Amino acid sequence: MSAESTADRILAVLEEDAQASYAEIAERADVSKPTVRKYIDKLEEEGVIVGYSADVDPKKLSSQSIAMVGIDVESERYVEATRELRDVGEVEALYTSSGDHMLMAEVRGRDGDELGDIIEESILSIEGVTAAHPSFLQERLK
């Protein structure tokens, strides 16, 4: 058995395959199914596991484009702007950032034109948002 904690082994399996059954997770993490259930319930309750998702290769999406958008916000409007950004339906994920921008958003649209409209009409229109810098994803490499 690995020196890695039980929770870490279970999380590693889930990060590889969010659809793995409890039996598969138990086998790969070298624990029992009841242990998997107990740890997953606890990790969800503690907010460590916040959801389950599918990894998508944007190049294979015939009717969808994805951009990572760096967003700058006035510091005095940060909380309010972040709340509003979380409510934008096309914002799939929103992250705080220590890089060039205060926030990073994963934004999805039908094509580049729609992404541009979403950025202009739904993101830049939020009071306190001063800039949005999109990077359009092209091919998933890993």
TrEMBL record:
List each copy of the HTH asnC-type domain by range. Answer: 9-72
Q: Would the keyword Heme turn up in this protein's UniProt record?
A: no
Q: What is the lineage of its organism?
A: Archaea, Methanobacteriati, Methanobacteriota, Stenosarchaea group, Halobacteria
Q: Which InterPro entries match?
A: ArsR-like_HTH, AsnC-type_HTH_dom, Dimeric_a/b-barrel, LrpA1, Tscrpt_reg_AsnC-like, Tscrpt_reg_AsnC/Lrp_C, WH-like_DNA-bd_sf, WH_DNA-bd_sf
A Gene Ontology cellular-component term: cytosol
Organism per entry: Halapricum hydrolyticum
Which Gene3D superfamilies does the record cross-reference, listed alphabetically? 3.30.70.920, Winged helix-like DNA-binding domain superfamily/Winged helix DNA-binding domain
**What keyword terms does UniProt attach to this protein?**
DNA-binding, Transcription, Transcription regulation
Q: Which GO terms describe its biological process?
A: response to amino acid
Annotated membrane-spanning segments are none
Q: Which residues form a coiled coil?
A: none
Q: Where does the source fall among the domains of life? A: Archaea
GO MF term set: sequence-specific DNA binding
Official protein name in the record: Lrp/AsnC family transcriptional regulator
- PANTHER family noted in UniProt: LEUCINE-RESPONSIVE REGULATORY PROTEIN, TRANSCRIPTIONAL REGULATOR AZLB
